[in-house]
Amino acid sequence: MNIRKRLTVTSLALVVGPSVLVGGIAWWSFDRFATATVAQTSAGLQEEVEGSLQASARRERELLDTIMRSAAANARGLSSSDNAATLLAARLGTDKELQARLLAGVEAGVAGMAKEWEVQTALLQQVLRRNVNVAEYVLAQRGQMTLGAPVAWKGVNQFSKAVVDVSMPAIALGGTPLPRVDGFEVKVPVVDEVTALVGGWTTLFQRMNPAGDMLRVATSVKLADGKRAIGTFIPVQMPDGTPNKVLATVLDGRTFVGLARVVDVWCLTSYTPWRGADGQIMGVVFNGVDVREVPGFAKTVLERKLDRTGSGMVLDASGRLFFHPRAELVGRHIVDDLKIAEFAAVIADQDAVGKVKRIDYPFEGRAKYAVYTRIPDWNWTLFYAGWHDDLAAGVAASSAEAFQQEAAATWRSGMVEVGREQKPLFAQVRLLDAAGKEVVVLRDGRQVKDLVDHAGADWWKPIAGAAPGSVEFSAVEASRTTGRPVVRISGPIHRDGRFLGAVVLNCDWQVVADLLKTHAIGRTGFPWIADAQGRVLAHQRLTWKDKASIADQATAGMAELEVPRLRSGEEGVIHYHDNDQDMFAAFVPWKLGEHRNTLVLAQGRDEALAVAGRIGASARQEAGWVVLRIAGGALAACIAGVVAGMMIARRLARPIERAEAVLAQVAGGDLTVRLAHVSDDEYGRMSTALDTALGAMGKAVQHITEHSTSAASQSEELSAVGDRLTDNSAHAAERASQVAHAAESVSGNVTSFAAAVEQLNSSIKEIAVNAQQAAQAAGQGAITGDKAAAGIDALARLSGEIGSIIQLINGIAEQVNLLSLNASIEAASAGEAGRGFAVVAGEVKELARRTQAASAEVSDKIAAIQKGVGESAAVIAEVAKAMRAIDAMQQSVAAAVEQQAATAQEMGNTLHQVAQGANEIAGAIGAVAEATKVTTEMAAQARASASELSQVAAGLREEASRFRA
Length: 965
What we know:
The protein has 965 residues and is an alpha+beta fold. Helices cover 57% and strands 20% of the residues. Helix 2 runs antiparallel to helix 8 (388-413). It is flat, with a radius of gyration of 67 Å. The two termini are 36 Å apart.
């Protein structure tokens, strides 16, 4: 079988066989892959469905946990409410701690009232200072005060009511007499103007006598009979013999601002001196306001409520009630009139300023308390009084109201969105006392008045024994009052280790069940809950009232979900039958407090795996189409492979047959034949290469023939040259040996001279280093000299300053000497009494003399030091100058030495190079001698090679004659 047939058969085998094999394997593999993929996809989707249900069940559980955690936080927040604890403690009535806390609150309130009183007093005093300035201004606008003829007055002492006859000059303002008016029908200048401008009362006092009693000559102060209070006077001395602090201040030329009694009325006042033309105090200008007419004071005391029925009150300095909520008691003495003896100590308690104290006392058959403090600068007592039994009751009432608001806020915060509707999570919010009786109840957001006693209820006992801060959950059960399914969430209330009661939130379970119904999954999926006993608590079709059990096939068809598994608290996925369909169910444990429950998320099997069925059918259909496409592709590949193989075999065989014929001619000795096949493929390049090789071989045969003759003649000439080369090389070897010996001698001498130069270079370097060190030392000496000169200059300046100090000491000594002289003169004039002082003066004089002598001696020494310092400075300056000159010279020497060192170094380097060159020459001459010997040997070999070359050339001519080129 020739090559064309073999190529055809081989190409068919290589194309058709693999195509059929690959197609068959692909068909079989893809069919298996498609079948396995569909099965794995279905199984994977089922696992995915189960895993998704499990994850959804956990999310549902987290939602329920969030709701219950929020409810527990509400219960814990209400149980920690101070209002709840205060309300329950107040209801007990015997809680001393609560009483103390409540009274502490009253004490804080009284302290606040006193602070407000002080602030208002300070503000009002500023206003009064301004008002009296206005009165002075208006008075000045009326003109200069002048005194006229004497006028008789009957002065009435405003404190003792004593009447005195007095004659005083009439007053004129700017030449206009000041009218003497006791009614308000006629306007009085200045006093009525100022009262109209700034309010309060305004008065002009005239000095009655040198002692300083002041008579009201013009005033807007109204007496009890409705007339002006002119003719009354302020005495310098009070009835008890003490000085009147108001007049004491004014007569001292200062303005008095503070509390004062004005015609039987307590006022905040401002009194300022009224001076005549000569600057003497001729009277007083007054502006004041009745304390009872200041709204802030009454409001601070009477409108402050620190308990339910108590009230604030004020006692003046005498012990009379100034502010009291009962008007009939105002002005009455609290001890003498009201017979409350306990307040005698309060009135006398001067230590109460800035402090808050408390007393207990009986009044009208009941126990009262009074918390009091002293008003600074007033000597008044501010206190708050109330009934002990009303204190707790009032707190209980206010705490109950506050707790009701908190409970209502908790009820509102428990709204849950179910579908599109907001539903309250808490059916009831309740506060129970320690016995289990309801105190506050909100049902469906409204206050309930019919309260129930739960003392005998089973669920109350665990709550009463719960730890502080804990929250207790009940199981889902019916409410005793409403009948609805609830979960009770309870938070106990403790104070100081004592159980006071509990807050109980009734979580409406139906709201939770309705919320779960909105969480449907597809058409058939829904969540439901069962307790540890298997009772259904929430379901899509069942309610808690149905009392359904998962173990009852007739009820729920869920017996496969076994009760023991619910109690174990495990998670899992089961399949069960419910409502005529197969179900997938993922279940997770859910604890409601300490009660175990199970949350189940179920979905119909068909709905859950519908996607898997659709994917499997689509995969099988697609697999069939893929198999058909693979078979068609394999058949087309076989046909194409057969046609292509035949064409390729024909094309490959043709140039091979042509090459076979050409090579046969070349084997016969004909080098002139050629393939002459032109193409771009491998056969074309092979043909070209073969033709080129045949041409090269023909040319080589021709060259061999031509050059073999020439080689024979040249070999004879080469033999003659070898003879001459042998003679010359022997002569050259002899001369090279002589030159090499001379070069070795020169190299030794140069090497010795180079070593000497190196020693010289080393010495020069050492000199350079020493010169440089000397230059540095000289420079450092110059710098040190400069520093010494600077130090000497500073010492000179300091000695000069010391001289100045010595001069100052001399001046002081002269002054002391002068003073001692004056003291001696004064002591002499004093006689015997000044004898001791004269001795001291003598000692001082002697001390001054010794100080002057010492300072003179110090001055002389300082002058000597200054002279020595000057001379030292000159010497050190000369030394520094000399050191700088030495430094310059050393720098020059160092530079020269460095230059010589560089020159020696260069010479050493040059001699080393010369020695090295001499060594190289000697080596080269030796190499020439050796080369001459080798040349002699090679010449002998050349003669032998020439003879052999002549024989080879004869052989080549004979072989080349066999080829035709």
